[in-house]
Amino acid sequence: MERVTIFHSNDIHSCFDHWSQMVAHIKKERDEHTLYLDLGDHADRSHPVTEALVGKGNIALLNAAKADYVTIGNNEGVTFSKDQLKSLYDHATFQVLLANVVHADGSKLDWAKPYHIHQMSNGVKIGLIGLTAPFLHFYELLGWKALSPLDVLKEYLPELKKEADIVVLMSHLGLKTDEKIAEEFEGIDVILGAHTHHVLPTGLYINNTLIVQAGKNGAYLGKIEIQYERLTNSIYRKEAVLLDVAKQQTDEQTDNLLSEMKEKANQLLNHPVATLPMKMPVKWQEHTEAGQMLCDAVTEWCGEEIGMLNAGVLLDSLEKGPITKGDIHRILPHPINPCVVTLTGEALEQTIQRSLTKELTHLEVKGFGFRGKVLGKMLFSGIEIDEKNGISILGQPIEKDRLYKVATLDMYTFGFLFPAIAESKDKKYFMPEFLRDVLTWKLKQKWT
Question: In the CATH hierarchy, which top-level class contains the domain 2-265?
Answer without folding.
Answer: alpha beta
